[in-house]
Amino acid sequence: MTQEETMTIRAMCDAFGVTARALRFYESKELLGPIRIGQKRLYTKRDRARLKLILRGKRFGFSLEEIRQLLDLYDPNDRHGIQMREAMRLGRVHLAEMTEQRDALNQAINDLQQQLDWGEEQIADLGKTEAA
User: pTM score, two decimals?
Assistant: First the structure.
């Protein structure tokens, strides 16, 4: 394996905008498996692909356990079919949850806006009463 095919922990941090601590954490959770040479870690193309999927999964609200399970389903012999079907199933679940959360947040925003509008009216009415 050539040096161009691997990346150091610093290069991975810079390329993906993550901390060394995060990479070591993902390694401890068996999400990444860099080559270890003493204390030095070298990340392969496979590790880089896995990190992209980890970060995307986190952004979509997947737990690290869900991400690990999806990564473990990787099988190039079935052209990733099992992995993709499971990712789609989980994605639909998370999309429904996120949509529900967004709707609840939109309702809370509307309620707060109504309260603020009411408060502004009350303050305006107080000013009129005091001026009279």
Answer: 0.76
